[in-house]
Write a structure and sequence with these properties.
This protein is α/β, with parallel strands linked by helices. The protein has helices spanning 14-31, 41-54, 114-128, 159-171, 201-213, 232-235, 268-285; strands at residues 5-6, 60-70, 73-84, 92-98, 138-143, 177-184, 190-191, 193-196, 220-225, 241-245. It has a 6-stranded mixed β-sheet, with helices on both faces. A two-stranded antiparallel ribbon has the order 1-7. Strands 8-9 form a two-stranded parallel sheet.
Length: 288
């Protein structure tokens, strides 16, 4: 049995705790919109909210709008991409996550959908404040349509990431990406990330080394699990990709895809830990 590490047992620096609190505020704003499945009025409102904030930053914001064929008909979706640094640069690090929620009664997805989008919003804001010349090329990507519309099979999932991976594979963009790090379900107060088995072993090992060096070994453990997620389409086109996911949410993962996935189950400390690790990884990739 895996015993999650309680957030209060982790000790991120104060600046990251402040950032983690901002991430939790974003989650509350998203959850206040209600369920946010792909194609819904609520997810359109969330996308508009995020885009408006991102456009205030020193980044290039682009929207990849498309219509996805699903078992319930054509559904409009949109990936949102915030590009920091030279948009033509190579050696890009992509930090990604999904912002849609599964279409289930009463499901507002505080952790599954909310936490990834919130983390990315705060990371973007913090990148905007990095001094010129210290920031490597970073693209932050918000995927739509990660959740299945009916059931996770026969391509009914990861609509946004599969579309973007196809596009990047065709136009050569994929060759400019040194790593893609996908985050999912990372706000749980009992933070315990999987050693996700599909992930690129080199990049995953580098992230785990950073986490352990920073004092977060208990949250970045050795429990192996295989989770098909938004990183897989990029692995298939040769991009070194990693999935950072806590797939032990509540006793026996019992909060996942239920009305129990609510803000009170999350902690700003967990967001702080994730931001500290991701920013350290990016800083170590920055130009000298």
């Amino acid at each position: 049995m895996v015993v999650p590490i309680l957030a209060q047992d982790l000790r991120p620096p104060a600046e990251y705790l402040t950032a983690g609190t901002r991430a939790l505020q974003w989650v509350r704003a998203f959850v206040a919109l209600g369920p946010r499945p792909a194609g819904s009025d609520a997810i359109r409102e969330q996308a508009a909210m995020m885009e408006a904030e991102l456009r205030k930053l020193r980044c290039r914001v682009s929207v990849d709008a498309f219509v996805a064929p699903t078992p319930r008909g054509a559904i409009p979706m949109r990936n949102i991409i915030a590009t920091f640094g030279d948009p033509s640069a190579s050696g890009v690090t992509v930090i990604s996550g999904h912002y849609d929620t599964k279409a289930l009664p009463g499901f507002v997805g505080a952790n599954d959908g909310g936490s990834s989008a919130a983390l990315l919003m705060v990371l973007a804001d913090r990148l905007d404040n990095w001094p010129p010349g210290t920031r490597p090329p970073v693209w932050i990507v918000f995927f739509d349509g990660e959740e299945s519309v009916v059931e996770w099979r026969d391509g009914d999932h990861t609509y946004g990431s599969r579309r973007l991976a196809r596009a990047w594979g065709r136009d050569g963009t994929a060759r400019r990406v040194r790593a893609l790090v996908n985050v999912d379900m990372v706000g749980d107060a009992g933070l315990g990330l999987l050693w996700e088995g599909y992930s690129d072993s080199r990049v995953r090992g580098e992230i785990w080394d950073i986490a352990r060096r920073l004092g977060y070994a208990d949250a970045f453990g050795d429990r192996v699990g295989y989770v098909e997620d938004d990183h897989v389409p990029f692995l298939r086109i040769g991009v070194p990709a990693v999935n950072l996911i806590d797939f032990d949410y509540g006793p026996g993962n019992s909060h996942w895809h239920t009305a129990q996935d609510s803000v009170d189950k999350l902690s700003p400390v967990s967001f702080a830990v994730m931001l500290h690790v991701l920013e350290t990884m990016l800083l170590e990739m920055a130009p000298a």
